[in-house]
Design brief:
Layout (H helix, E strand, L loop, with lengths): L14 H8 L8 E7 L2 E6 L10 H6 L3 H18 L11 E4 L4 E4 L4 E2 L4 E10 L2 E6 L11 E4 L6 H13 L2 E13 L4 E12 L11 E6 H9 L22 H10 L2
Parallel strand pairs: 6-10
Antiparallel strand pairs: 1-2, 3-4, 4-5, 6-7, 6-8, 7-11, 9-10
Bound molecules: zinc ion.
The site of zinc ion (ZN) has 7 residues, from loops.
Length: 258
């Protein structure tokens, strides 16, 4: 994400400024049309890494929801264009049509942007919830369980399967709550709540380092603490919840609110 010249916040820049900075249009990648805002058309453009660039995760954490959504949209489209330069059917190069939202090869095979569904679920059992942590996360951080939906699988089945695979717990009454785009690189997080049925939680695959129950009191205390989230953050004791912008946190806050 390119940041504004006079500040640190990511901002939209005129295409002409980008052309001048890059030494001409030939140095700028394909433009992908995203839509029209109150100042005119908005495009996503891939440029080489360089000064004034920060990562998408870093940018998204400091942005309002609508601008973060625009960045997610741009990043997902650019990723798709980057990885669809050749036809998956016949291997020929593709070219962009329809403002970059369709790519077609010389044989006429059409390719549309795709999204990979991920289910993320908060398992609740009365006044306690099941949270897990990965070994690479900062100390004390726990979050809702999550996993990719498999081909041919219903979302409710994916929720039950992932909880069983990751935590050895069976669930029932799976209900959809909310969703969030997650362009790392092309996912859509689908948030659910599920009711505990049976089983003692234990990490069962390689994904989680620990998975266990947390009481409403523990979660309430953690939710009340304003912790500035960074990957470098290390917490001494106690529970560290996901940042407020994450859908996992939305699921937790809704459970707390009853
Ligand atoms: Zn083809």
């Amino acid at each position: 994400v390119l940041v504004a010249r006079d500040g640190v916040l990511p901002d939209l820049v005129p295409l002409a400024a980008l052309r001048d900075a890059a030494g001409g249009w030939s140095q700028v990648g394909e433009t992908i049309f995203l839509g029209v805002d109150d100042k005119g058309p908005v495009f996503a453009v891939e440029v080489a890494d360089g000064a004034g660039m920060i990562g998408l995760r870093e940018a998204a954490s400091s942005l309002a929801g609508d601008r973060a959504g625009l960045l997610a949209y741009a990043a997902a489209m650019l990723h798709w264009a980057r990885t669809t330069r050749f036809c998956g059917v016949c291997g020929r190069p593709t070219e962009a049509l329809e403002g970059g939202h369709l790519r077609v090869c010389g044989e006429g095979h059409h390719h549309h942007p795709r999204t990979d569904p991920v289910v993320i679920m908060l398992v609740a059992d009365g006044d306690r919830v099941l949270l897990g942590r990965q070994a690479v996360w900062p100390k004390g951080r726990y979050s809702a369980l999550a996993g990719f939906v498999e081909p041919g699988e219903a979302l409710e089945s994916a929720v039950a399967r992932e909880v069983c695979e990751e935590a050895a717990v069976l669930v029932e009454d799976v209900r959809y709550v909310a969703s969030q785009p997650w362009p790392f690189p092309a996912s859509l997080m689908l948030g659910f709540q599920a009711r505990y049925a049976e089983g003692d939680p234990e990490p069962r695959d390689e994904e989680l380092e620990d998975v266990r129950w947390f009481s409403r009191e523990e979660v309430t205390t953690a939710a009340g603490e304003e912790v500035q989230w960074t990957d470098a953050h290390e917490r001494e004791g106690g529970l560290l919840l996901p940042p407020r912008t994450a859908i996992a946190r939305v699921l937790i806050e809704r459970w707390l609110a009853g």
